[in-house]
Amino acid sequence: MKLPVVARSLALVSALAMIPIATAGMAQVDSRVAPEFAKLFATYQRIKASYVDEVDDEKLIRGAIDGMLASLDPHSAYLDGTDLQRLETLIDGNYSGLGLSVVMEDGAVKVVSPFRGSPAEKAGIKAGDFITHLNGKLIYGDDLDSAVAQMRGQAGTSINLTIFRPGADEPIEVNVTRGVIELEPVTHSVADGGIGIITVNEFSRDVGADVFAAWGEIKKEVPGGRVNGLILDLRTNPGGSLDEAIALSDLFLDDGRIVSQRGRARGESITYNSETVYRGQIAADVPLIVLIDAGSASASEIVAGALQDHHRALIMGERSFGKGSVQSLVPLGNDAALKLTTARYYTPSGHSVQEGGIKPDIRVPQISDPDMERRMKYQLRESDLRGHLINEAGLEDDDLERDIKADPRFSQTAEQLKEQGIEDFQLDYAIKTLRRTTASSVALIK
Q: Which of 230, 386, 390, 439 has the greatest number of CB atoms lying within 10 Å of its CB?
């Protein structure tokens, strides 16, 4: 998860304070790991002496560090100057590029989700796509940072992407013009029937405050000021700040736990409760639906899990991504840091989101997407990533399979829906559900 400035500052203080403890710990295990360090040094010496080309020390040391972190999980990484700047811009939610959340899978760059309203989404790039070439150059086998750096660039410049889309017969060539990704973290609208819709695109700074403001605007815009239902749309939201996930959850809760994290190191096991950011709750008597899908990850899953466990909202859509781990930024000097997985997080009922994700109370497929069936077959989740953390509960494969039984409610084709003017079936289904719901008969799963 991305860390706010204050959290990064605290991390720096904590890291410095723990240096004597860490040094003592290394002294205790030194005798046990000495043979393994000897192998590492011997490998270094042999490469320096015998490799066909001369290799500089920085390349070898960086390779050793990257290899150590890659052996842990997909989210731990070493960050130096450029990478740290990139992390800062992601926290700010303002940078020039395509607007994509990507991961490396078996040497290929795979799209987790395009940000809503981004150049990538407008160009038709979809979750599950593989990016194989940039401007005609094969990027398979390159590291993820190199690929991301090439996709970034000055607003107004363009780049040609070659896309492999599972289920498509031929590669897809897409030309995308880079833009300034000033993501609106929160947007809102009002649907007929007094239904408010709040869309959270990512968890950057002030998301909690922005949702609070959006709720105030919705009450002004709804005829008569009577809001009959509210939809919190967290689809294709890859996450972000833990603090903002807690703040957003706290808006809708007035009692109980929001999330807990458990780590091995002292200070990494923490419980976060409601009423610590906002007093009381907004929309207390308004039926609430939270929309999620396979692109809803991390902070999105914290919010959905908290509202589901407290029976405050009906969760609708598709099972979420399943990233149930917390990353901390650990400084290494002034110009480098480790993004290290330090804890797992758990919903109020003690459910680990890792691998399994948040299962919706009502599964609603996005049948308005003509590529839905092909994309769902190859859809990417945390459990698909090489080296992902294993859920402590030992989930069986069957537990992670989606319900594929035929449902007469979802039998229409994308073409039929388009003829009816329905471009977003999941949102349309949620709106119609709320129109049939009264405040005295909120359709919550208990």
A: 230
Tell me, letter by letter, the H, E, C secondary structure of 289-353. Answer: EEEECCCCCCHHHHHHHHHHHCCCCEEEECCCCCCCEEEEEEECCCCCEEEEEEEEEECCCCCEC
Residues 370 and 422 in one domain: yes
- Identify the active-site residue in 2, 110, 126, 323: 323
Q: What CATH number should be reported for the domain holding residue 415?
A: 3.90.226.10
C-alpha count within 13 angstroms, C-beta hemisphere, residue 437: 25
In a domain, 200, yes or no: yes
Q: Are residues 178 and 199 in the same domain?
A: no
What is the domain count for the chain? 3
Domain final position from 76, 103, 127: 76
**How far is residue 432 CA from its own chain's centroid?**
28
| CA–CA distance, 336 with 382 (Å, rounded to integer) | 27
**Amino acid sitting at position 217:** E
pLDDT means per 10 residues, the chain with 446 residues, are 33 26 44 81 93 93 89 83 62 71 80 82 87 92 81 90 85 91 84 95 89 96 92 91 93 95 84 93 95 91 96 94 83 83 90 85 87 58 47 47 57 82 92 78 43
At residue 30, the pLDDT reads: 60
Active site residue 298: yes
Residues 424 and 321 in one domain: yes
Q: Which of 390, 386, 339, 323 is nearest to 107 (CA)?
A: 386
pTM: 0.71
Q: Clarify whether 323 is annotated catalytic.
A: yes
Pair 169, 195 in one domain = no
* Catalytic-labelled residue, pool 298, 325, 328, 352: 298
In terms of residue numbers, what domain contains 272? Answer: 186-441
Same domain, 236 and 267: yes
Q: How far from the centroid of its chain's Cα atoms is residue 444's Cα?
A: 26
Classified as helix, coil or strand, 214 is helix
Core vs surface per residue 139-155: b (16+ CB within 10 A) or e: beebebbebbeebbeee
48 is catalytic: no
Closest Cα to residue 435, out of 194, 129, 223?
194
Do residues 210 and 108 share a domain? no
pLDDT at 343: 85
Is 446 part of any domain?
no
Q: Are 222 and 142 part of one and the same domain?
A: no
Structural domain ending residue among the three candidates 160, 182, 204: 182
